[in-house]
Amino acid sequence: MATETLTLGKAINRGLRRALEHDPKVVIMGEDVGKLGGVFRITDGLQKDFGENRVIDTPLAESGIIGTAVGLSIRGYRPICEIQFDGFVYPAYDQIVSQVAKMHYRSQGKVRVPMVIRIPFGGGIGAVEHHSESPEAYFAHTAGLKVVACSSPQDAYTMIQQAVASDDPIVFFEPKRRYHEKGQVELDAPLGDAYPLHASRVVRPGRDATLLAYGPMVRTALDAATAAEEDGRDLEVIDLRTLSPLDLAPVYESVKRTGRCVVVHEAPSNLGLGAEIAARVTEECFYSLEAPVLRVAGFDTPYPAARLEEDYLPNLDRVLDGVDRTFGW
Questions:
Q1: What are phi and psi of 29, to 5 degrees?
Q2: How far apart are CA 181 and CA 194, in angstroms?
Q3: How many CA atoms lie within 13 A of 328 on its CB side?
Q4: Beta partners for 202?
Q5: Mapped to the 3 state alphabet, what secondary structure does the chain carry?
Q6: Could you give the CA distance from residue 167 to residue 94 in angstroms, rounded to a whole number?
Q7: Are strands 26-30 and 55-57 parallel, antiparallel or unpaired?
Q8: Using CA atoms, how far apart are residues 47 and 60, in angstroms rounded to an integer?
Q9: Which residue from 284, 164, 181, 173 is spatially nearest to 223, judged by alpha carbons?
Q10: Which of 23, 78, 81, 95 lies deepest, with the highest CB count within 10 Å?
Q11: Which of 253, 231, 249 is nearest to 240 (CA)?
Q12: 138 and 132 in contact (C-beta within 8 Å)?
């Protein structure tokens, strides 16, 4: 099995390349995705190798990108749309919610919209306003969309290909602060043998408490689990991976063993994914819980200026504090 050490960003690039090679109906669209290779260089080299008709530099108009992709997908193409930054997706929100999410239902299953909307999300890169949002709950709340978030190079490589191959519209969140983190990637494994796209995964077994995270916070949760060993606590970490549909069977199994659960995400806690997960875990695992399901999240404020973002983002200390609180009950 051929493996290679890749950054998360490069793994997505390689996954996109493989998707373009596999299906001539796959096209990439977005602002600066061609000659520049994207603002994060995720599509670097693809226009040169596949041409301007398949890797398309679009105008600065997110609603136009998504609207055009809807038409292409109905006509049999598989467009991959890049939204340059998370905070730029809102001009396309009407297209995504009113058209992308509803076309299949509206046509009584006769029309499919097989498209992927790639969104770099989260903070931690010192960016300016509108460049460090966490809009995942908007889309996970919308029936008709599937929403996933990768957290490692291996998942980035396989999940982007699985998303492109899916007949459903998928919002694909990429943790921009993790683009340069490296890991081993199996490059030639059959896609059919890969871990399922819409499935969560235990990334660190443990017995004392369950930490749930996705995207950029998986690394933070793993670091917290390592630090907690100093206090003699063995934390299980689960990467949710799929935000809609949620795959909570591994979470229920874990919480029924550990009796404690802490959910971590960058988005504000108010009406975030953590609230939905806490409700479901409480319903399913009520008699196993030794403490309430707790949330460690961003604050309910607009994302702050770059010099304050480390005070806003959940970090190692805040996660460990959440773990301490769950043991305080």
A1: -135, 140
A2: 21
A3: 7
A4: 238
A5: CCEEEEEHHHHHHHHHHHHHHHCCCEEEEECCCCCCCCCCCCCCCHHHHHCCCCEEECCCCHHHHHHHHHHHHHCCCEEEEECCCHHHCHHHHHHHHHHHCCHHHHCCCCCCCCCEEEEEECCCCCCCCCCCCCCHHHHHCCCCCEEEECCCHHHHHHHHHHHHHCCCCEEEEEEHHHCCCEEEEECCCCHHHCCCCCCCEEEECCCCEEEEECCCHHHHHHHHHHHHHHHCCCEEEEECCEEECECCHHHHHHHHHHCCEEEEEEEECCCCHHHHHHHHHHHHHHHHCCCCCEEEEECCCCCCCHHHHHHHCCCHHHHHHHHHHHHCC
A6: 21
A7: parallel
A8: 18
A9: 181
A10: 81
A11: 249
A12: no
Q: What are the strands of the beta sheet with 146-149, ordered from one edge?
A: 55-57, 26-30, 78-82, 116-121, 170-175, 146-149, 242-244
**What pLDDT, on the 0 to 100 scale, is given for residue 189?**
85
pLDDT tens digit sequence for 276-320? 999 999 999 999 999 999 999 999 999 999 999 999 999 999 999
**Average pLDDT score over the chain:** 97
pLDDT digit string, tens, across residues 225-262: 999 999 999 999 999 999 999 999 999 999 999 999 99
- At residue 40, the pLDDT reads 98
Q: Is 130 tagged catalytic?
A: no
Does the pLDDT at position 139 exceed 90?
yes
User: What is the greatest pairwise CA distance in the chain?
Assistant: 60
Q: What is the pLDDT of residue 115?
A: 98
> Which pLDDT score is estimated for 2?
84
Residue with tokens 């916070």: 217
User: What is the Cα Rg of the chain in Å?
Assistant: 20
**Which tens digits make up the pLDDT trace of 94-123?**
999 999 999 999 999 999 999 999 999 999
Angle between the 8-22 and 153-165 helix axes, to the nearest 10 degrees? 30
Give the whole-angstrom CA distance, residue 18 versus residue 13: 9
| Cβ–Cβ < 8 Å for 227, 320 | yes
Instruction: Tell me the one-letter amino acid at 43.
Output: T
